[in-house]
């Protein structure tokens, strides 16, 4: 007989989600769905707020990647003011984003995903977590914590606090970097680099043991989207948008975020609060594309710093060219951390980095604008419409995790179909399905918004937990 297996909650991710695995009469997988079950609706309650507040408000969407929204909102505000921010302002914003990518990727690799790699997919779930990792390899766990601390402190030195800063504003940033802050960063860069090389060597040495995971954890053809610089280099803040395919061919290039609605559509399904973006030319759901570290390393030609470029060359050799397996997201994060540390090192040597000329002031000159930047998890869009007084009339956010929604669903289906057969459902198999989601390091607090009237289900239960009534809106 047919059966549904529910993994609830999906663990070691940011936010709340569940996975439903639908088995047929033979006990094989028919379908798999990744449900995002939390609803937040930031887009709606931003309406009526002054555009000047949007950076500080949207930073509170998330505690792991607040800098992404802070910077993207500020970039959108720059365009509403039609202002060119000072060079120091852009460099300081870049520095904060580099710190954020570093800390977020360190959290994903060391704290959320390493328990699977180091303790085993089939190990006891009670200890298959960061505490088990600390017990098994305290030096590695400590190094990962300190690497994340480095990135968080870079953010704090600029914005005065590690999370939910309102430091980046339309026109630039509120305050410069101090000489003491610059020296703190310079002094600790060597340790941070040592840690990322430790992680890179560890992961590369494990890859041969993970050939099944490489083949089954989201290995399929898709498009890839990300920002690239003017010289085709890796980019995280500026540049233009590019789509490439699984053969490395450029599908669309030099795309402006202003026209994102021409090439990105958004669909919804009644079983998830997470929207399903897709590449419009291919339609839904065929227009599947991926964003984030895997995509960024696919769409660029090079990174632009020597050590990261050397690692990128080896990464591509191990991937067989274009990386199409989502398992390589973990590897890509480590390459990106190294790229971030080298970029930070260059900024620390730039005399502009201590300049106090870091903000341009202007009045509102436009009533609609779109900003884009690269969050740790992928490309982020903020689209604002305002009235003549600068009050928000409409907001649309396309979040990195949302961009990956079709790919995440395809990944968990691929993994489940490989491992679950003939009613043989083992805990380790289900952990592998969850691990498919962890490849993408989703941030579900960022990603859940309303699109018109969303499907809704409310369960009313008594104090004993017994269901009294279900109310459903399709």
UniProtKB/TrEMBL annotation:
Domain of life, per lineage: Bacteria
Pfam families: NiFeSe_Hases
The name this protein goes by in its record: Hydrogenase large subunit
Organism: Synechocystis sp. (strain ATCC 27184 / PCC 6803 / Kazusa)
Sites where the protein binds Ni(2+): 65, 443
Name of the gene encoding the protein in the UniProt record: hoxH
Keywords from the UniProt entry: Iron, Magnesium, Metal-binding, Nickel, Oxidoreductase
PROSITE patterns in the record: NI_HGENASE_L_2 (PS00508)
Segment forming the signal sequence: none
Family according to the record: Belongs to the [NiFe]/[NiFeSe] hydrogenase large subunit family.
